[in-house]
Amino acid sequence: xxxxxxxxxxxxxxxxxxxxxxxxxxxxxxxxxxxxxxxxxxxxxxxxxxxxxxxxxxxxxxxxxxxxxxxxxxxxxxxxxxxxxxxxxxxxxxxxxxxxxxxxxxxxxxxx
Length: 112
Hints:
Strand order of the largest sheet: 1-2
Helix content: 55-70%
CATH architecture: Orthogonal Bundle
Mean pLDDT: 86
Number of domains: 1
Low-confidence stretches: none
Number of strands: 2
Oligomer: single chain
Number of helices: 4
Radius of gyration: 17 Å
Strand content: under 5%
Largest sheet: 2 strands, antiparallel
């Protein structure tokens, strides 16, 4: 049986890593944490935030609503309260289409 390398995925991410992933300041992540109850990072003994993959998905959803779709904070809160499933589906569809576009671009670049 051939050796198969396992990918190790981190359980927790720092606020700096989360902010870097979305290209925003850590202060914005802390602000969204105070405004949206779906972001609930653990806090370590020193008070450092420890974000899970679920927290990151929730930040991604808020980022999508506020930064991409242009919702106000209250508008984003309303969407999360009333149509969270629809917003998640739309965000996932956009991500999937971006992946397909990148794949097609890669194929196009390999053509003579």
